[in-house]
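Appendix B. One record, verbatim.
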Amino acid sequence: MPNSQPGSAYFLDERRQTPETHTLSILVDNEPGVLARIAGLFSGRGYNIDSLTVSETEHEKHLSRFTIVTTGTPMVLGQIKNQLERLVNVHRVVDLTVAGEPLERELALIKVVGTGEKRIEALRLAGIFRASVIDASTEHFVFEITGRSSKIEQFISIMTELGLAEVSRTGIAAIARGSKGM
């Protein structure tokens, strides 16, 4: 058993690992309780989920796909992947970040309340960000925007100054680049 006392090379190696953000894609049976088991695995071990999306993707086979974004050291991320693979209803776990830079998108609905110049500026900036107006009145807009999370964060930040009232986000949907499927 390696010595993990301060001063040992093993201990120093662990301390040098910096946290990384990874996107995991998990193919599971679409059955009651699977979400609770996966969420329980994360919470029970003190791991955080930064983003979580899940939906049935193969109706005939009753399979769902989870996309989870989490942050940890390479060692912790490896543990998470191994523990997920051991769950009964899990068919496959792919670390999309390790497989190559994944294609990631998120959808957000953003309500902005305002009148006058702020209203005009919100509409102008929405055009620049390619956000669509999906609801409007003389006092508000609801914008729909899709893209990388950083784009959505930037849009939200700008809209905060113009009367941001409410935000609803889907979380990240991701898929590996290239011709190979999961």
